[in-house]
Design a protein that fits this description.
Distance between the termini: 41 Å
Mean pLDDT: 81
Strand order of the largest sheet: 1-2
Order of helices and strands: EEHHHHHH
Shape: elongated
Structural class: mainly alpha
Radius of gyration: 19 Å
Number of domains: 2
Helix content: 40-55%
Length: 134
């Protein structure tokens, strides 16, 4: 795993006004490396020498290019990550730390039960009972 540091510069600050260290999976790292090689200016996420000032505008452009009809927001991407991580079996404390939440109740908003995870939970209890029974 590699990391990326997100820190404020000038008038822009991360949501919590502090720098954030973000873990990246190999696939995300490779995408960033590829974007870095193909950049047209100084910045990875800009086609000019002017840095991206509005993530919302950038997402709107990217979602339009992708043919999405739904309005996409940065929080939707965070929500999707958290939800998918929890569905994949990540523990809520790890998701809380990755998301930078100070309160577990904030992370709890991302919990959505789906039939597959409900079945997996019941099976975990069955497996535990089978292993632990005398």
């Amino acid at each position: 795993m590699e990391t990326v540091k997100v820190q404020g510069k000038g008038d822009w600050k991360p949501k919590t006004n502090e720098e954030r260290i973000i873990l990246l999976c190999e696939e995300a790292l490779e995408i960033l490396k590829d974007l870095f090689k193909k950049r047209k200016g100084r910045w990875v996420f800009s086609n000019t020498d002017i840095p991206v000032r509005s993530i919302q505008r950038s997402l709107k452009t990217a979602s339009e290019k992708a043919g999405l009809s739904k309005h996409v927001t940065p929080n939707m991407i965070r929500h999707t990550f958290a939800t998918h991580a929890l569905w994949a079996g990540a523990d809520i404390k790890s998701v809380m730390d990755i998301m930078g939440h100070k309160n577990i109740e904030t992370t709890n908003r991302y919990l959505h039960s789906i039939p597959e995870t409900l079945k997996r939970t019941v099976q975990l209890v069955q497996n535990f009972k089978t292993v632990k029974s005398p």
